[in-house]
């Protein structure tokens, strides 16, 4: 699989995403500077986490105007895979590729910790290796992860099974206590209507290796590979 | 050059003594002008010149087979094999953080990060050591929140994880908090960059942010004591811009991956002045700069202001002649200001021009290295004997051990720091194997099978009571934290926070502490490769406790052979390494339960310490232990409680039986005897563990079993043991320990 | 009485956010835009009819909490 990882000024999970796809999963990865155009031949684009433009003004608000984003929109329109993690999710929202906005966490603090998310829809190109209702332990690290949208949009997103992950307890209960940031309906990740663009606040790349004590996040990346008709065995497994 | 009338008042304003001024006259052979006076003032400040400390710092051991770069550069470097180096340093930002906690702490993080990536290393970990007053003080709560969000704001945005640290709360720091930040990066051993202005004719290039009027004379402020008028010094606080620093980091590493760079240094304290004269002095060259070419944020800045500005996120570089274009192209790619502002010369002088006219001319070496040196008088304080006197007979022994343990767990110094570290991104870069909340942070080194363990530590109270022993213990405890992760210590950085060196009692503390550091480092065979001294930590004539903060790096040869502090599994056997003595002096128990900070700190025998550490490392490497935790603040009972409740995946109880052996009950439970480590071991490996310990000459006792939902500690012995059983539900223990800080902040 | 309060960074203090926005405006083609300064706007109802007293209170609020006078300045209208 050919993966493109976009590097915005201030991206800081770009190397982590590169490491997972290249060193852990053995895929081919291109780093794409935000002022460049999207190279031909990519199978998926990753918008990584970080603080693009220092999170100044609003998270993702300036990055959406980066030259590369025109190509990313086109790529998404063609139905190809785009995943935005954390700040990447925020950029997808600002760019209008996903519905809704991110508000400040209700605690007003940056929060970095493991959370549990429930897979609400396992029949997607990002979750086909999970089971429906499966609970994944994946860390979050953000100050603005409080997802919000208007009731009409929310109803549409739910009706269309676009809510992919919801914050839950270790045993899968979606409760207020399990919600780390005040997110509407405990939403941790959503997909577009066409099913090819995913945004999620938790960082699967931080929980995809045994050496880090947790491999749950790996299922997301393996699902993307599966969606490409490649099994884990076929891919060259290197690294830890 | 404009002439200047040098008055007494002007010298005082610049914190230069009459003798120092005479020396300036000798060096220049004439009177300095305004700009030159400012430059001498900054470079000869305590902060930049180490004038009170330098003769003592020379005694520290700084060499060893792994040392690639010792003190004197932006940071130290030690060899970790595989062609790689760990580059690290610790620095203080105490005074700025007191004035403006958010920006003070943030720019402290920014400064230490620049020190690391200037060397060609990509920063992979930050830690911090903080000291505040008691949390019952509203201003302390404000300082804590500001400092924590400042560290978070800067480090998180940079994408460098803050993986650990420690915080102590004590009223002595209420008006002089300490903010010490440690950073570690990884560099290729053959690609270390130094701050050298080599190659006559090579261009001197400025890049990063523009220069503003912020922070002028920050270095002299850092060398100043505080008083009620501190607020007046506020305009010297700088504002940090982590976004620009992130661009600066990436631009630097991209520049360094090529071969156009000759030398590089960040503009930290004393800004352009220090970077220019230090780079020239190290190489024995000179530099000539045109100030009109320095990128500026504000109009009408004078040479004095340009040379002394401490605007953040700026770098000075010497490139190969003819390669300016490449450098400029890379800086522009990262949206940074960049300008060729001068050339390297062979004059040995820093020559500054403004539109072609010379505005300052000073021998570089005189400015950077020939500053004053003082062997300041030292003598023990009059109160020292009184401090050390502690008559145990006047202390009632503990009557309700349950209540005493809960009180200790509720002490913010001992309590969980989760409220703090959850605000730090401690996982970015995906190296963090052991997160904050264990004895040491552990990070894998990508591309190798190795891991590094990191720890910061210092008990200022021990250092107050006995500066020599306290400093020894700081080194020993830091190394012990690493040993509990299975890591062998390979290098130390220090950040020596003391009061006003012009007070003989402060100098006495400093000199003894240096002796302690030296002896402990030599015994444990670990060199000090970088560091920082922060003096004048006093407010309204009250000095802080002497606080020689230690940051230590340990190497784990095989990343999967490491350990964490919490109990893992019911049925495992609890083994205590080391011996418990009647060590109550200077303990947290004495402070919390008896409101005394007195006595002699615990005895530390460096040979015993080394044996215990080596034994622990061996046991972990051989895969024989499930957990390892050192006994420190609060003693054995607190250590056991932490083993039960600090786990990332829930809590577990334990049943422990201890022998009184003629000790006081409180000394047995809460005394802080050194060189003790609590292990948990699988049943079938206990005999093997005890055998390894015996062969290593380490006392090892089987004291209990992991399991259940209660922490039970029974004490056997004579009738004095009555009433000192601990028997608590682990949920109660956890609640007390985990929520103490949010509770104190009113956020539980 | 309602106080409308503006808090901005003092002139000469680095405004990283303003700088980043200015840069973004420039790359979007707004080359005439310059010197972007980002501030905060707040509205506070003050339960006080005496204008002078209200003014004194708002000034205190700004000094004590709303503005960090180390690096920020403030102005307000009372109405």
CATH topology of chain A: Rossmann fold
How would you name the CATH homologous superfamily of chain C? Phosphoribosylformylglycinamidine synthase subunit PurS
Low-confidence stretches of chain A: 231-240
Q: The biggest beta sheet of chain C, please? A: 3 strands, antiparallel
Assign the structural class of chain C, choosing from mainly alpha, mainly beta, alpha/beta, alpha+beta, or little secondary structure. alpha+beta
Radius of gyration of chain A: 16 Å
Task: Please give the domain count of chain A.
Answer: 1
Count of spatially separate domains of chain C: 1
CATH-derived topology of chain C: Mth169, Chain: A
The major sheet of chain A is characterized as: 9 strands, mixed
| CATH class bucket of chain C | Alpha Beta
Distance between the termini of chain A: 20 Å
Distance between the termini of chain C: 6 Å
Strand order of the largest sheet of chain C: 2-1-3
Largest interface: A-B, 35 and 33 residues
How is the quaternary structure best described? heterotrimer
How would you state the average pLDDT of chain C, rounded?
89
Provide the low-confidence segments of chain C as ranges. none
State the shape of chain C. Answer: elongated
| Beta strand % of chain A | 15-25%
What does this structure look like?
The complex is a heterotrimer of chains A (240), B (748) and C (79). Chain A is an alpha/beta fold and 240 residues long. Chain A is built from 5 helices and 11 strands; from the N terminus they run E-H-E-E-H-E-H-E-E-E-E-H-E-E-E-H. In chain A, 20% of the residues lie in helices and 25% in strands. Chain A has a 9-stranded mixed β-sheet, sandwiched between helices. In chain A, strands 5-8 form a two-stranded antiparallel sheet. Chain B has 748 residues and is α+β, with helices and mostly antiparallel strands. Chain B has 27 helices and 28 strands. Chain B has a 7-stranded mixed β-sheet. In chain B, helix 19 (467-483) packs parallel to helix 22 (606-621). The longest helix of chain B is centred in the N-terminal third of the chain and has 21 residues, at 138-158. Chain C has a single domain, classed as Phosphoribosylformylglycinamidine synthase subunit PurS (Mth169, Chain: A), CATH 3.30.1280.10. Chain C has 2 helices and 3 strands, in the order E-H-E-H-E. Chain C is elongated. Classes of the chains: A alpha/beta (240), B alpha+beta (748), C alpha+beta (79). The B-C interface holds B 99-100, 103, 209, 212-214, 234-235, 237-244, 297-298, 311-312, 335 and C 9, 12-16, 19-20, 23, 68, 70-71.
